[in-house]
Amino acid sequence: MKAVVVRSSAELAVVDAPEPVPGRGQVLVDVDAIGAGYVDVMARRGEYAYFPGVGSVPGLEVVGRVAAVGPDVPEGLVGRRVLALPAFGGYAEKVVTEADRVLTVPGSIDAVDAVAAGVNAMVAEIALHRVGATAGDRVLVRGAGGGIGVLATQIARARGAEVTAVTSAPARGARLRDLGAAHIVDRTRPATAGSDDDSAPAGETYDVVVDTVAGPDLADHLALLRPNGRYILCGGVGGAPEVASLEPLLRDFHRSPTLFAFSLNSVAPEDLALSWKRIVALLEEGRLSAVIDRRFPLTEADAALRWVESGKPFGKVVLLPR
Ligand SMILES: NC(=O)c1ccc[n+]([C@@H]2O[C@H](COP(=O)([O-])OP(=O)(O)OC[C@H]3O[C@@H](n4cnc5c(N)ncnc54)[C@H](OP(=O)(O)O)[C@@H]3O)[C@@H](O)[C@H]2O)c1
C-alpha cells in the first residue's frame, strides 16, 4: 500500500509499505479521507513530543471502513464507516488503530465532511463544553479562520453565544460572518482601527476566549476576560505560551478569571464518543458545516503540509488516497 513518511524535518516522502495487521484490540481501516493539520506540521518538524520521528507515518485522523479486526474485537465492526483516531499512521491507504479509537460515521455524512469536522470539531466542541459557553455569552475565537477556529465559531453560535472572530483579512472575516460570527477583529490592523459595522467595538471584553494561537499576544487576550471569564488554550500556532503571559490571571484575581489548558490527548474514549455524537447531531441538523479548504491526493501530502504550514488555508485540508 502507499504511505507517506517523514523524510526530514522539512520533507515528506511517498513509500510502498506493507499493509498493517490489526493486533489484539485493534481494527484495520480502509481509508477514504485523511485530515491534515498544523499538528502534522509540528510532527514533521520534530516539535510534537509524541511523534516517533523520521521514518514514521504522520496522520491522526482518517475516515474509512473497518476492513478487518484483531483478536478480542467484535466481528460486527467489519464494514462499519468510522472516523478513526490512530496514534499516527494516518497518511496511508490503510491504518491500524485501537478499537476504542473509532467513532461511527452515519451514511448521511460524506467522508470528506466527516474528516474535515473530525478532531478539530471535537477540540472545539469539548473546549466550549468545558468552559460552559452558553446562550448570551460573548465568545472570542482566536485563530478563527483555522481548522479548529471555523468549527469553534459555529459551535459557539449554535450554543447561543455572540461570537467575535479574530482573523487576518477582510475576505476571511466575511466568511466567518457567514458561519455565524457577529463581530470580526482583523489581527493585522491596530485594535482601534476599523469602522466596518461588523468590527468588534474597541475595549470589548469576553465571557469566554477560545485560543488556538497562544504566542506573544496571549497576555493581551487574557486581559480581555470579563469577571468570571473562562479562557481555554487549545493550541499554539503563534508560538508556545510563556509563563510570563499568565500574569493578568494573578493581577486580576479579584475578577475570578479561569484558565483551562486543553488537549484532546487527555480525553477518555467515552467522552470523545459523547462529543462526536453531539457533533454528528449538529451536522445532521445543519447547524454545523464542515469547512473544506482544499483536497490533495495522498501522493501530494508534502505540498499539502506546506500549504497548511503557510497559515493560508481557511478550514480543513484533506488528503485523498484514491
Ligand atoms: N488541543 C488539542 O487537542 C489540539 C488538537 C489538534 C490541534 N491542536 C492545535 O491547535 C492549533 C490550531 O490548529 P488548526 O488546525 O486550527 O491550525 P490552522 O488550521 O493552521 O489554523 C490556525 C489559524 O490561526 C491563525 N494564525 C496563524 N498564525 C497566527 C499568528 N502568528 N497569530 C495569530 N493567528 C495566527 C490563522 O488564521 P487567520 O489568518 O484567519 O487569523 C490560521 O488559519 C495548532 O497549534 C494545533 O497543533 C490542538
TrEMBL record:
InterPro entries: ADH-like_N, ER, GroES-like_sf, NAD(P)-bd_dom_sf, Quin_OxRdtase/zeta-crystal_CS, Zn-ADH-like_protein
Annotated protein name in UniProt: Zinc-binding dehydrogenase
PANTHER family: QUINONE OXIDOREDUCTASE-LIKE PROTEIN 2 (PTHR43677:SF4), SHORT-CHAIN DEHYDROGENASE/REDUCTASE (PTHR43677)
Organism name: Streptomyces luomodiensis
Transmembrane feature ranges: none
All copies of domain Enoyl reductase (ER), residue ranges: 7-319
Domain of life assignment: Bacteria
